[in-house]
Sequence to fold (173 residues):
Amino acid sequence: MKKSILKVTLLFSILCSCQSEIKTSEKEKYLRWVGDIEQNDQIDETAFKVCNGDDKILQYFNLGNGPIYAGEKSKVLNTFKSKYKPISGKKENGLIRIRFIVNCEGKAGRFRVVQSDYDYQEKEFDDEIVSQLLNITKGIENWEVLKQNEVPIDYYMYLIFKITDGQLTEILP
Fold:
């Protein structure tokens, strides 16, 4: 009887230690939220830093607002209207989403692009269209510095571009 209890206790302690190891490795493997943007030194500017750590970047749905820029959305719309050059002869149609982080200094970085057709099926647009939109987005320097309890925070932001026949027809949100 004592041997049985000892075996069960030993087996239980082994299982508990294994479970603890699994939880630790899973935690390191998964991101906090779907879509979190990890630093990638091969594509991200190494000078861009978040201020409060990657686990404290607020998602857009935590903010309760749409995109927040100095000069409101009209300034961003005018920036794209004046800088985007449509690609003639291209019948490109769909959506291009550029997602990024705005740090506590109001600077943007870690840009990621997702492209789809109007049915949200993955597609690749002409590189000239994507690179124009990405470069214009990277050039926006007047993102608002947001504060929580008087402390500047880092937050995720995104822009979605509706493209019809190579023309930029709408910017969301």
Notes: Residues 2-29 form the longest helix (28 residues). The beta strands are 94-102, 108-116, 147-148, 151-152, 155-164, 167-172.
